[in-house]
């Protein structure tokens, strides 16, 4: 597949009198292929928003190379602007305009046929409220209107920053179906989101950023298989047996999390390793089931490790080896 977004060695430093120097991006890399829904994940302050602004030509990088739709950014940003749609940060609206008026105004400004207005309102589920003033909309409805604005010109690349913000579970599901349909129609979608369960269901691939650096990337399945260790849920007949099992497994160097009526054992690839340790203590399980590790677990593992590693380097004395 051809690359729609290519980021290599991206750097960005912010300087201010009040806050001093802050390294927002420190050699960051990312690749997004055509037709994908690509999840862009990172904690607050990780450099995610800065990266999106660089991709859109809104912020100039301090170093590195960025190509969008095969063109260098920011030099080619005016030329490719019509092929890129975006919802970044909080959208602004004219509160006394209706959704239909808002989109029609954008059509006229961008030389898009007005027939497109009804199409995108249907697409985002606002057809029945198309003539109502935006000030009467809920936060979730405003988010759907913002997405409608972003896809109005039918872009080749769609960049969405937290599009499910304010949506109820039904709205989140509708947004997920919409993004999948857009990708299936040939559009490439870059999705920044904190709803990691949705990302795992929806996205074809992900990039995880922490502290300005890439800490994970690839297909969702590959990222999970590379970084996730198997967990097991273990139950025994009584609380006393459960406590004895926890001691035995911990003594065998297994990682244990004790819950009310069960143990969660991690770092073990085969169930037989658990049953063998317990059988030697005359303890027998009543239930032993795999507990798959999800994207949220991997995200926390990678971002926590990245921050901890940076702190260790910062604390290493000059001349010492970390």
Features:
single chain; about 325 residues; alpha/beta; Rossmann fold; Alpha-Beta Plaits; six-stranded mixed β-sheet; four-stranded antiparallel β-sheet
The top level CATH class name of the largest domain: Alpha Beta
Which regions contain 5 or more consecutive residues with pLDDT less than 50? Answer: 311-322
CATH fold group of the largest domain: Rossmann fold
> What's the alpha carbon Rg, rounded to whole Å?
24 Å
By secondary-structure content and strand pairing, the structural class works out as alpha/beta
The helix content, as a percent range, equals 25-40%
- Compute the number of helices: 11
> What is the tally of beta strands?
14
Strand content: 25-35%
Total domain modules: 2
Strand order in the sheet with the most strands: 6-7-8-3-9-10
Could you say which overall geometry the principal axes of the C-alpha atoms support?
elongated
Write structural notes for this entry:
Belongs to the ABC transporter superfamily. It comes from Luedemannella flava. InterPro entries: AAA+_ATPase, ABC_transporter-like_ATP-bd, ABC_transporter-like_CS, P-loop_NTPase. Residues 5-236 form the ABC transporter domain. It is a single chain. This protein is of the alpha/beta class. The protein has two domains: 3-219, Rossmann fold, CATH 3.40.50; 229-291, Alpha-Beta Plaits, CATH 3.30.70. The model is unreliable at 311-322 (pLDDT under 50). The relative contact order is 0.12. The chain has helices at residues 48-55, 77-80, 99-110, 115-123, 139-151, 169-184, 196-202, 220-227, 239-251, 271-279, 295-315; strands at residues 3-16, 20-33, 37-41, 63-68, 71-72, 84-87, 157-161, 188-192, 205-210, 213-219, 231-235, 255-258, 263-266, 287-291.
């Amino acid at each position: 597949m051809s690359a729609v977004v290519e980021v290599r060695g991206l750097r960005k430093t912010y300087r201010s009198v009040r806050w001093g120097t802050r390294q927002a991006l420190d050699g960051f890399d990312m690749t997004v292929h055509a037709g994908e829904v690509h999840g862009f994940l990172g904690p607050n302050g990780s450099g995610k928003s800065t990266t999106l602004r660089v991709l859109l030509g809104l912020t100039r990088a301090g170093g590195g190379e960025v190509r969008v739709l095969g063109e260098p950014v920011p030099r080619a940003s005016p030329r490719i602007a019509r092929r890129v749609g975006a919802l970044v940060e909080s959208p602004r609206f004219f509160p006394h305009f209706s959704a239909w008026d808002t989109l029609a105004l954008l059509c006229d400004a961008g030389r898009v046929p007005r027939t497109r207005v009804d199409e995108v309102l249907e697409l985002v589920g606002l057809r029945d409220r198309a003539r109502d003033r935006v000030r009467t909309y809920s936060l979730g409805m405003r988010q759907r209107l913002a997405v409608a604005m972003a896809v109005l010109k039918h872009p080749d690349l769609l960049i969405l920053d937290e599009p499910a913000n304010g949506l109820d579970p039904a709205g989140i599901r509708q947004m997920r179906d919409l993004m999948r349909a857009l990708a299936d129609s040939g559009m490439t979608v870059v999705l920044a989101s904190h709803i990691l369960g949705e990302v795992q269901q929806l996205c074809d691939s992900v990039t995880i950023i922490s502290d300005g650096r890439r800490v994970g990337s690839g297909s969702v399945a590959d990222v999970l298989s590379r970084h996730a260790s198997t967990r097991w849920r273990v139950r025994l007949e009584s609380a006393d047996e459960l406590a004895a099992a926890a001691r035995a497994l911990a003594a065998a160097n297994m990682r244990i999390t004790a819950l009310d009526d069960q143990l969660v054992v991690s770092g073990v690839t085969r169930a037989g390793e658990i049953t063998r340790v317990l059988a030697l203590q005359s303890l027998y399980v009543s239930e032993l089931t795999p507990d798959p590790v999800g994207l949220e677990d991997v995200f926390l593992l990678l971002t926590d490790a990245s921050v901890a590693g940076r702190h260790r380097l910062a604390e290493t004395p000059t001349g010492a080896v970390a």
